[in-house]
Amino acid sequence: MKLSRPVSWFLLAFGVWSWFIWITFVKNLWKDGSGLAFDDAGDPTAYFWVHLLLAVASFLLGTAIGVIGFRGVRALRRAAADHTPEQPAAPSSAAS
């Protein structure tokens, strides 16, 4: 299966975006002071575990999608390099 250039770049960008967003989310979840993620004793709550599970699943899916996009971009670049016409020989001046 061949992916188009825009689809490949979109999938790669989605993978990078997913990592950026979810890393930020996990950092904020870890530093939560509102009492949602950690109870008064400092123990993680169900809210913390559910959202950590969502983040891990999103990391895995974002990685898989990003890898597919990266492989698509790499394949397109390789195909373009293989189909590049050779440099034509310099025209020779024919003396009459």
- Uncertain runs: none
Q: Let me know the largest β-sheet.
A: none
Structural class: mainly alpha
Please tell me how large the radius of gyration is: 25 Å
Overall helicity:
55-70%
Strand content: under 5%
Shape: rod-shaped
**Spatial separation of the terminal alpha carbons:** 55 Å
Number of helices: 2
The succession of helices and strands, N to C, reads: HH
Number of strands: 0
Mean pLDDT: 87
Please describe what this structure looks like:
- The protein is mainly α and 96 residues long.
- The protein has helices spanning 5-30, 46-82.
- The longest helix is centred in the middle third of the chain and has 37 residues, at 46-82.
- It is rod-shaped and about 80 Å long.
- The model has no long low-confidence stretch (mean pLDDT 87).
Summarize the structure.
By secondary structure, the chain is mostly helical. It is built from 2 helices and no strands.
Sequence-ordered SSE layout with sheet pairings:
Elements lengths: L4 H26 L15 H37 L14
Helix pairs in contact: 1-2
Task: Looking at this protein, list some descriptive labels.
96 residues, mainly alpha, 2 helices, 66% helix
